[in-house]
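Entry:
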Amino acid sequence: MVNINSYYFHAPGIISRVLDQNIGQTVGQLSSGIETVLVIPNRGQVKVLNEVGSRIWILSDGKRSGNEIIRMIYSEYEVGENIAREDILGFLFEMVERGLLLISEIPVNDQ
């Protein structure tokens, strides 16, 4: 079940590439113009995440809880805390439902 205390990490078999349109900026830092392409080979699907979705994908490394991800997005973007919480939990739920993210109740190493 998706909640703020769980840890989120990429499902095996998902191929992702973060594209940063800002030359000279490090991927993973706050920047506009990033997108993430997810390839799901066993379904023959490709998904593209926008900037905020990409940032959540990057932060979903199994080492950060949902609450930590929410706080980071809240601090990096001009959005209210309640809106950030609702939107991010909704995004995480959708990604888990689609099998793109997995959940753990404890931090996950080597993701």
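The beta strands are 7-10, 15-20, 34-40, 45-49, 61-65, 101-104.
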